[in-house]
Structures are given as structure tokens and as C-alpha cells.
Design brief:
Layout lengths: L3 E3 L5 E2 L14 E3 L13 H11 L2
């Protein structure tokens, strides 16, 4: 199951549609399983996450 982090309150959770802590629906970023919420540009999984979140 994927994990996400809220950009507003930095809480990690399992819902992509909103943060259960601060109730915001925007700014949910998927967390890399290998490196956590901070993406590492050399990691293939992180690069895919960055591309999918930026819309490229």
C-alpha cells in the first residue's frame, strides 16, 4: 500500500485524496518506500514519483 505525506502538516498517511489530520485535500505527495518523503534524484522510483507529481 502506498504512503503519502501532506505538504501542509507533513503527516504521513495512506490516503491520496486528503490528509486525515488537517483535512486538506491538496498537497498529498506519494512517499518513496526506499527514501521516505525526501526524493533522491538517483533513485528510479523517486524519479517516477517526481515526474508523476509534477505532471511531466
Amino acid at each position: 500500500m502506498a504512503r503519502f505525506q501532506c505538504l501542509d502538516c507533513e503527516t504521513e498517511h495512506h490516503t491520496a485524496t486528503g490528509c486525515p489530520r488537517c483535512r486538506t485535500a491538496r498537497g498529498q505527495v506519494e512517499v518513496c518506500r526506499a527514501h521516505g518523503a525526501r526524493p533522491v534524484h538517483r533513485c528510479g522510483a523517486c524519479r517516477i514519483l517526481i515526474r508523476s507529481q509534477s505532471g511531466l
